[in-house]
Amino acid sequence: MSLESVRYRRGSLQVLNQLLLPQSSQYDSVSGVREGADAIRTMKVRGAPAIAIVGSLSLAVELTSNPPQQTAELLTFVRESMERLVGARPTAVNMKRAADELNAFLSREAEKPGVTVQELTDRVVQWAESLLEKDVRDNRLIGDLGAQHILQTTNAPAGVVILTHCNTGSLATAGYGTALGVVRSLQALGRLSHVFCTETRPYNQGSRLTAYELVYEKIPATLITDSMAAVTMRERQVSAVVVGADRVVANGDTANKVGTYQLAVLAKHHGIPFYVAAPSTSCDLSLPTGGSIVIEERPSQELTDINGVRVAAPGIGVWNPAFDVTPHELITGIITEHGVFRPEELRDGLSQGK
Ligand SMILES: CSC[C@H]1O[C@H](OP(=O)(O)O)[C@H](O)[C@@H]1O
């Protein structure tokens, strides 16, 4: 079984259908933007960085197979395609950032004298392709910087114990992962004792995806239910909680998988450091606080049903937000590819890292 969420070569994009994991490892072809948006909306593909990468590559494959003949047509197609992709899932900022950056890039390129529509199309495709390598590079930096920081600030002579939530590994990114990247770097240093991963109801990214990644890489780990987080922190010598992010805003408030906020409250209560691991592509400094973040609400069946079988009482009301916002006061540090910052240092830290 493979841990690659995406398989891409120019003109061909395949995504690992994460709805079928861990039972089966099936790659589905994505031939264009509509299929890319559907794969994101249905959560075949998920994870803030992976959403932006698959969305952008779905545009690249469509442009490769059906290149516009006029520059004006290209500009309109790219703008409308990115709007469609951004609309697939609203909370993670990565796809919106990619859309804004690509539209700005293309506008600048289109102003250059004598540039042809084919040259512009090629530059859009190359721009999308560059996201793959950049994401893996960023994740390895996040992993190494986060591991070093945790080793320097925690006393864990027998090895570090990490509690993590949702899936933030190779299945949520182009590879290596963010919070799971920190786990991988600690493991590579021989300084990881154990990982506790939460089930992460209702989509079960923890039991289906993170557990799959940890077993695959023979990283010592234990699956717990979301409701076991408090007793695990009290009785299992957790050194640090490390989670991912879908949108970190200017004051450090962070939207992440629902259940993250309560982990932060529990970590505070138990005196355990709480870290958000996220690339700068998951940061949105245009929003001053987390109150402005749109929280996606998903179909009630994702909560009431298991494998298509209803387990909740018929007729009960359902609230199924996919994310919650952790206030910056509960966050010890934000681990980025530019460094580890306290929430109040984030804006300056990112601007200096550019
Ligand atoms: C590497 S960030 C992954 C981030 O995205 C997940 O959300 P979803 O599975 O709904 O796309 C979750 O919030 C993770 O922390």
UniProtKB/TrEMBL annotation:
Keywords, in A-Z order: Amino-acid biosynthesis, Cytoplasm, Isomerase, Methionine biosynthesis, Nucleus
Residues under site feature: Transition state stabilizer: C166
Subcellular location per the Swiss-Prot or TrEMBL entry: Cytoplasm; Nucleus
Any single GO BP term: L-methionine salvage from methylthioadenosine
GO molecular function, one term: S-methyl-5-thioribose-1-phosphate isomerase activity
Residues annotated as signal peptide: none
Catalysed transformations (reactions): 5-(methylsulfanyl)-alpha-D-ribose 1-phosphate = 5-(methylsulfanyl)-D-ribulose 1-phosphate
Major site of localization recorded for this protein: cytoplasm
Active site: D246
Pfam families: IF-2B (PF01008)
Keyword Nuclease: no
Annotated family: Belongs to the eIF-2B alpha/beta/delta subunits family. MtnA subfamily.
Purpose: Catalyzes the interconversion of methylthioribose-1-phosphate (MTR-1-P) into methylthioribulose-1-phosphate (MTRu-1-P).
PANTHER family referenced in this protein's UniProt entry, alphabetically: METHYLTHIORIBOSE-1-PHOSPHATE ISOMERASE (PTHR43475:SF1)
Name by which UniProt lists this protein: Methylthioribose-1-phosphate isomerase
Organism phylogeny: Eukaryota, Metazoa, Chordata, Craniata, Vertebrata
Gene (name only): MRI1
